[in-house]
Design goal:
- About 40% of the residues lie in helices and about 15% in strands.
- The protein has about 375 residues and is α/β, with parallel strands linked by helices.
- The strands form 4 sheets. Strands 5-8-9-10-11-12 form a 6-stranded parallel beta sheet.
- The protein is globular, with a radius of gyration of 22 Å.
Amino acid sequence: MACFGYLPSIFPKEILENTDIDFIIMDEPEISFSELYDHLEHGKSIGNLRGIAHKENGNVFLNERRERIEDLNQLPFPDYSLIKINLYNEFLLNRPFAVIQTARGCPFGCNYCVRTFGTKVTYRSTENIINELKGLKDKFNIKTIRFIDDTFTANKERVKRICQYIIEDKINLKWTCLSRLDTLDNEITQLMKKAGCARVYIGVESGSQNILDFYHKGYKLASLKTQIKMLKNNGIDTVGFFIVGAPQEREEDFLESIDFARDSDFDYLMVSTLICYPGTPLFENLKDKINFNLFPYKNEFRDLNWKKKIISWEKEFYRRFYLRPRYISQKIKILIIKPDEFIKDIIALWQYIFSLTNNKKRNDFI
């Protein structure tokens, strides 16, 4: 049995010692997994196989880490024939749906963020990306794509090239991406819309400058509303991600976030309570405030009163944003245009929000 991912890469020894897992593929998995498979199939020793942690005769061995994959073009495209593709979709966008990663790494300094691939960014070529998009459309009739790069718009010139290829080759797909507002301008936003961009997911995190500075976001609130309006004026949906629960966050900071979200008129909004993940600067700075354990897994603030407080903030944030008469009236036209999809997705959204009130485990909604 083998596994890979964020936590296994940080705690390979602990996981091997406490589970029945035989192999851990550390960091980027593709090349390491391929080599592990070949070695096991042919009965070769894996003692010097980079990127692998393993057990042998009850002992744990951590092999040398593998360097980053510099040429992402060498990786094969995912095989969508292996999944039931119609089970997946973007909220209120057409099926079938697929995801594509065009770059790995994020150059920004947010102290709470899990950088699975680090701060160094590696890119696929524009031609390689376009070939995958064409393949998804031709073979699987894909209608909607999400670019799952940490910050798709980090390199404007690259985004321009991708958009220009999509337009020139008449690929005709709707797509969404994750972005930062300070990486966008009107020129790139107009080009994105022309190339099929339907929605942008934005990690705002807070409407309080004090909290943004604590998270090392590098944002200045004064300019954010203008950039959100720019997206909306170009016909692109906006989804704001917010976090509640920074240790120094106070009621006034929380209320500033709600006011910012409502005034910015996001199309949709997702709120989460702050989780300090191992390997992040925030985790190191707040260790004494966190109850972290791998087996059984637990990662929460030690102060139970604070935990209850921020959960109540999360619920209130959702309520005060979504249950506004003005917001509800704005969405009526979607109900008229796409009644089946709208009702189904609204039920999913409501179930997601309702799970906050009964402490059920919930899945990601967006």
